[in-house]
């Protein structure tokens, strides 16, 4: 019961917070904070009680929704989903906290939107029914659109529509692919169902499967984002309010990565292997391209947005390397990038609250007046360039070690991305914290609330860097299951098996 | 006692953490106490463990695994420490020299507002450096490796408000990162072939996995060399080190002379098995060392800035160590590292004291006559300089450098060119070293001494001066009595260099030659800067291009500027608004155009619509009749 | 009783319809346009009657009754709209009432 509880409580909390805003804004904030915190504790309890690493699915919940069409409310959690839930609630709580002072108009509606986005994301991570998955995919999109357009910065209309159209158009392709999968599977087996576990065993002709996979890939590639489809991201990030940027970077992008792992790889393994070289090439190109663009940006939030593009390239590289090392690296990358990039956006938000600009040419020397902020900026700039001891290093290193098993030339280019990451990260530090003080007035360092937020993030990123094993243990079994070729596929069709082998042979050779 | 091994790096980290968290609130007198105290206790524990280690049977190692860091699909590096004779030498130098430099900094940095921050970073550095040399696997080594890189960045940019410091710091970080990337790729290759990154396993399995000179092992060795070259400021990644002198002098002494820049030497010595399997790569190490030591030596001859001379000299001396590694003289390289750490730390600290005394004057030509005003600094600097110039018999530098010279000549992998490079290098070293001494301490006084250093500065200088002479006597060549404590200490780990047969008898000739050259170099410096001071200006004016070329460090900065920095910045700026956005914006424009086209038909005038209906009806009727 | 040939009635209906249509197209005054629409409606009604009498069926007259009621309703709604337009825009010129321009 705890799984629907997560979603329902977030939705209910959102409505309650909205109603409460008639009476008191403080109450609204506390209600949403409490809702997310309770969920975080719930997820922690689930994590704590997980019955050993050996069992794959920790909790499962299923009731019929529209049985005529084989649609059910099927929620389930394995290690991967659980980690994503923890990240969602952790960043969610922080998102509520950073909005405490920043948001002053339409507070009720704001918290409603915030909690509904979180509910949608939670649903995406839990849904094991493709129809339900698509439903939540849309649920997280619409409140996010309002978050950007209502509480955003000067150019928020443009950014919000761009975000909406990109996501919606690609989402529709995914819907078509979901329906295609539904009918193809239904025609073959006579069992028309959207259930993930049934569809895993679907036996689809390779040509059709390729198109279906591309449909899914479109949605995930836009969300991730993969390079030619990334242009919504800098606009959306730079225009959104701080919490919006945090959720976009920390969570929404991760739904794309999660989709790759959860749907593309297990459902369309053979097709994914066929496109793997291309996918990796695009990922690696994204790493370099994002890093180069990040270097020239003058808008701090836009700069950080391009670093996201760069870091998400590692996810493409890792997922399509098809081995445990790289996939574990991807899982780590999802978590650590959520924290470190989220933290950079929060820092940008803090600076914006003080000097009312995001333009880094008008910053400088902030270390002197805001040493605490400077120290945090240092930690997260280092995280973003992959310094060992911080979580991102573990993620990127595992990804690269894994990718090396699959491809040499792409891994070398991706490793060069670390140099490029150094260049832009140090530029952030130089422009914001080094140099002579840009602002004439003495700036106040972080308040207690702001310090609390930053400390939570700093401690978690260091913890992830030094003790990543609990995370890796949790995701070990799901990642293995996702990657291994199921026995049924091997025995079902002899010719199929030969095809898999030949494709794997190709997969080994493109290094 | 060996259970305390983890405390050696942990204490500086703890000190750093305390200073970061509470540094600004602590009373000022506690800051150096925590800073130097933590390193001091580490040094003490090192001493205890070192005693135990030496008295135990040779070849033993101390291992301690703290926790499993990562364990994924066979990739399982731990947070584990491994102490053998090689790492013992390194942790000894790091903790002791580090402690002395901390003590020195307590006075040197006392006036600075970032006092606590300075000690926090310095402690963080010592901790990371200790992790680097104690790591039992390559990934943890990489952890320390990047950690010291970060601290180097932070400390070069310690005076963050200066633009010059900021850019020097970034330059150092980025250039070393290029090398680190090569090293990371090497690590991937090692893991793919061996399935482990544990250093002992690599050492044990290397000979069974690879054949001598195979393509793969050569590539791995070259990639590791890439990392070493970046960190140790060797050709072609040497250009960051002279700029790094923008940082405070204790930083230059600790990081950019004594410890961090020798990490590359440590890495190659640690993975010497790989390099022995790849003779080509090892030869490249030697060539890079030889070329670097000459190039840096020539550059040092022309510098004005006291600290830049020392920086180029550091590059040159590390070139000697690389040369030694390249000819398989492993223990000689480590010996020279240790001696170099003593005398170069001493020189930097003394130079820092001089610069502070002259109110931040770096230009040697504006110094002079300090012999009387700053006697302690003069004498200690002189001892350090003598050691650097390898004046025979009394200085430690003579014994360490002589060993390299001899093995470059006599070693199995040595050759005449290596030997000549080392010999010429020794001559140049003597010249630029004594050029420094004569310009700074002799002649007439040009700048007023504003501040005479106190005992916290003097004591570390004296201790280091003693070490710079005394430490040489643990390794005395055959011709002078034959003592091999250091080589024996390292010998179970690092193989002894094989000497070409029938050449032993020439050893005294080589020594005589080296001694003569270093004394001759010192004499030449005296002639140029003591007897006829106008001469060097005439030479400079006769060949200004050459002088400038050397002054700018063989123009490597311009080269990299044109080949890497400018294209990158250009590419980045040209594409600032993201070309990929164009097709999407074009789509928007096309949609807008079509929209306007159709909107035009909706004129709002009723009769137009009527005409539309009528024409439409007629068309349909006509079609109905015709078809 | 002599019967009028159905063709005559149809020609009259056509002429009436064309008159209505042409006046609808050339008039700018909305009131006249409404009148033109009525003429066209009646032309259609006449055609129904003629056709009904030609085949001696009552359906034609039934349809005309429909048209009649519809026309009454249409006129009342149309006139109300015209009044509103005049109130809002102070004109009954249909070309000037082009606020719905895209």
What does this structure look like?
The complex is a heterotrimer of chains A (511), B (627) and C (102). By secondary structure, chain A is mainly alpha-helical. Chain A has 21 helices and 2 strands. Helices cover 77% and strands 4% of the residues of chain A. Chain A has a two-stranded antiparallel ribbon with strand order 1-2. Chain B has 3 domains: 2-545, no CATH class; 546-576, no CATH class; 579-626. Chain B is built from 27 helices and 4 strands. The N and C termini of chain B lie far apart (106 Å). Chain C is an all-alpha fold and 102 residues long. Chain C has a single domain (6-89), classed as Orthogonal Bundle (Helix Hairpins), CATH 1.10.287.3510. Helix content of chain C is 75%, strand content 0%. Chain C contains 3 helices and no strands. The longest helix of chain C is centred in the C-terminal third of the chain and has 31 residues, at 59-89. The N and C termini of chain C lie far apart (58 Å). The model of chain C has no long low-confidence stretch (mean pLDDT 89). At the A-B interface, α11, α13, α15, α16 and α17 of A face α5, α6 and α25 of B.
Describe the global form of chain C.
Answer: elongated
Which residue ranges of chain A are poorly predicted, with pLDDT under 50 across at least 5 consecutive positions? Answer: 489-511
Helix count from the secondary structure assignment of chain C = 3
CATH top level class name of chain C: Mainly Alpha
Based on helices, strands and strand pairing, what is the structural class of chain A? mainly alpha
For the largest interface, the chains and their residue counts are: A-B, 55 and 51 residues
What's the overall average pLDDT of chain C, rounded? 89
Rg on CA atoms of chain A, Å:
22 Å
CATH topology of chain C: Helix Hairpins
How many beta-strand runs of chain C? 0
User: Roughly how many Å is the radius of gyration of chain C?
Assistant: 17 Å
Protein structure class of chain C:
mainly alpha
- Total beta strands of chain A: 2
> Beta-strand percentage of chain C?
under 5%
* Known CATH architecture of chain C: Orthogonal Bundle
Pattern of helices and strands of chain A: HHEEHHHHHHHHHHHHHHHHHHH
Strand numbers in spatial order across the main sheet of chain A:
1-2
Number of domains of chain C: 1
| Poorly predicted parts of chain C | none
- H and E order of chain C: HHH
